[in-house]
Amino acid sequence: xxxxxxxxxxxxxxxxxxxxxxxxxxxxxxxxxxxxxxxxxxxxxxxxxxxxxxxxxxxxxxxxxxxxxxxxxxxxxxxxxxxxxxxxxxxxxxxxxxxxxxxxxxxxxxxxxxxxxxxxxxxxxxxxxxxxxxxxxxxxxxxxxxxxxxxxxxxxxxxxxxxxxxxxxxxxxxxxxxxxxxxxxxxxxxxxxxxxxxxxxxxxxxxxxxxxxxxxxxxxxxxxxxxxxxxxxxxxxxxxxxxxxxxxxxxxxxxxxxxxxxxxxxxxxxxxxxxxxxxxxxxxxxxxxxxxxxxxxxxxxxxxxxxxxxxxxxxxxxxxxxxxxxxxxxxxxxxxxxxxxxxxxxxxx
Length: 349
Prior knowledge:
Largest sheet: 7 strands, antiparallel
Oligomer: single chain
Radius of gyration: 28 Å
Structural class: alpha+beta
Order of helices and strands: HEEEEHEEEEEHEHEHEHE
Strand content: 25-35%
Distance between the termini: 107 Å
CATH topology of the largest domain: Protein Transport Mog1p, Chain A
Helix content: 25-40%
CATH class of the largest domain: Alpha Beta
CATH architecture of the largest domain: 3-Layer(aba) Sandwich
């Protein structure tokens, strides 16, 4: 082999190297493009895979929420209270929420999407709590079977892409995975679009709405309102709203971490001997009014009882009242708004 032939072979090898590098680069760009199809800022939850070829079209996270998980058959819908009824009450849980909507365009059906997730959940050790495909009542109540509440989510599709889908194809599933660091719950709703729809920005195929709730205690992040600050607020606005008095979900038992706020109320009452107060419980709008009305009154009564029995405040200076969700200070359509509405207020008598 002469030098010219060696040079040619060398050039060919270098060209092959360049081509290979270009192919790797193109492949990498393809991965970037595939990820770019997801909604900006969205990502899979680390504890659950996605269905192959699907894209994230809506995404939201919350550090701590109240959540009602369907675990039994739907029985009726209370039009007056705008509330669904079940053969057993929904499971009330609290924790971190990740909400993801996936779009699996093409030939994918709602039941195919459901079965794939069901198999994956079983593989990961989840217990299936409810499966609408095994519920005879589900076909009768398909219009009300799934709840698509909390539609205010970051999405590049219509907020109502689940509402407007063919109701007979709605599939609902809930599951639980016990964990030492806190149980993990999943709510899965799948729907199907048989053709593209420009109004709802829907593509032919199936959609999955997945809520993952990681049960864990809330990190207390509220600044305790001091007694002098309470006094100033009452003098200037006629009331003071307190967020440091905490209760378990749907209960009136005061949590231990509420003690600093209660100590400040007692301090206020000892400092201002002529002050008498209405202690007013407020709730968000989740649930029906009658339930919230009773709950808000019980919570106010619990605060009064604690101030009297544990801090020695004269009971004649305190009156417990509950107004349910009739005096919101924020919208009830977002978790942030609902959190602001759940409070105890002090109002001078």
